[in-house]
């Protein structure tokens, strides 16, 4: 649902055009008054302003306003998908159709829109720590290559913003093995690769939203969800999270419609890019650790457990066919290999691991 931004306000001015008449009564031309107002752009998101992606948008809005001295202004369009299923895809298509000029869209979303360059980032059990995600989005060579494929969807990537690790949350029982998923409805955001991952375990992916989500949990047709501790306060009921089963890390992409971006002045293009980079750095610097989000989840009545080593190996075995498919694309295979190599050098601090409860 579109709503008027309430964090930022614009001052509006009125211009008075004067007609000057010479002494002989003939009209005399005068230089036109420059009444051009600020350039304004609409930024769509499925989130509200309290979600991690929303907070990043607010920071981006302020960065753009500051860097442009108020001459370039961003208006967020909160909850732009209006409670629809495939909510992130709705926003991506709004961007393509120029219903919004910019958007904040999870990287997982783009594989349904013909973009393959980001699939390595969302490969199951590959990016399993905030530290690794931060390293990837902050490495220009990697992030540029990951975002390069967005042109297929009419978009240009400005930056990537890490959000949080994604785990299975069970309603009634822990989802600590592929067997626990078999035949079960699992609520997950729409993504071709994400859906394929749930199916690899025998589960049934479902992107139910709103009342359908809660009703599915109450009726038992949805027995789990794929989400993160950072968003666990929005679960219909407290569940049992498997902390060491980390499907992937949610990373948001801040993007612009390519035609809209190309129509801006070079100065405004540079401002958007600089603001996006500054926002990414702000997000990384202000990230709340996984352990803190997990502790808050426990305080709300949730439970956290770990899968055994045998169960973890079963998960890895289940997704091997997905990797065979992914690695048929040479660019995706090369990116997966680079992320694996980078992963070996990244140290995960104790605060990056959820404590059981």
TrEMBL record:
Signal peptide: 1-22
Key words of the record: Signal
Pfam family, one: DctP
InterPro entries to which the protein is assigned, alphabetical: DctP_fam (IPR018389), TRAP_DctP_sf (IPR038404)
Keyword Signal: yes
PANTHER family linked to this entry: EXTRACYTOPLASMIC SOLUTE RECEPTOR PROTEIN (PTHR33376:SF5), PTHR33376
Protein's name according to its UniProt entry: TRAP-type C4-dicarboxylate transport system substrate-binding protein
Organism: Kribbella lupini
């Amino acid at each position: 649902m579109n709503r008027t931004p309430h964090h930022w306000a614009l001052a509006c001015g009125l211009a008075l055009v004067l007609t000057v008449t010479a002494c002989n009564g003939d009209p005399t031309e005068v230089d036109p008054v420059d009444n051009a107002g600020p350039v304004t752009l609409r930024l769509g998101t499925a989130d509200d302003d309290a979600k991690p992606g929303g907070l990043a948008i607010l920071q981006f809005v302020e960065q753009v306003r500051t860097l442009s001295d108020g001459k370039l202004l961003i208006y967020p369009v909160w909850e732009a998908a209006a409670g629809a299923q495939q909510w992130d895809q709705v926003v991506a298509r709004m961007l393509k159709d120029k219903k919004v000029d910019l958007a904040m869209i999870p990287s997982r979303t783009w594989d349904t829109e013909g973009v393959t360059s980001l699939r390595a980032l969302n490969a199951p059990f590959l990016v399993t720590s905030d530290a690794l995600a931060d390293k990837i989005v902050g490495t220009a060579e990697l992030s540029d290559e990951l975002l390069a494929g967005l042109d297929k969807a009419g978009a240009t990537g400005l930056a990537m913003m890490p959000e949080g690790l994604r785990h299975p949350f069970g309603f009634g029982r822990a989802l600590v093995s592929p067997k626990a998923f078999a035949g079960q409805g699992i609520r997950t955001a729409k993504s071709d690769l994400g859906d394929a991952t749930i199916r690899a375990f025998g589960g049934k992916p479902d992107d139910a939203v709103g009342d359908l989500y809660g009703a599915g949990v109450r009726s038992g047709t949805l027995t789990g969800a794929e989400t993160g501790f950072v968003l666990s306060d929005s679960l219909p009921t407290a569940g049992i999270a498997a902390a060491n089963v980390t499907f992937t890390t949610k990373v948001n992409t801040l993007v612009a419609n390519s035609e809209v971006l190309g129509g801006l002045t070079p100065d405004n293009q540079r401002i958007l890019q600089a603001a996006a980079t500054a926002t990414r750095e702000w997000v990384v610097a202000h990230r709340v650790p996984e352990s803190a989000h997990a502790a808050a989840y426990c305080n709300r009545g949730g439970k956290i457990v770990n899968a055994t080593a045998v169960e973890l190996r079963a998960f890895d075995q289940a997704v091997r066919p997905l990797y065979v498919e992914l690695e048929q694309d040479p660019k995706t295979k090369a990116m997966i290999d680079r992320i694996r190599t980078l992963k070996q050098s990244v140290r995960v601090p104790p605060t990056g691991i959820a404590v059981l409860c």
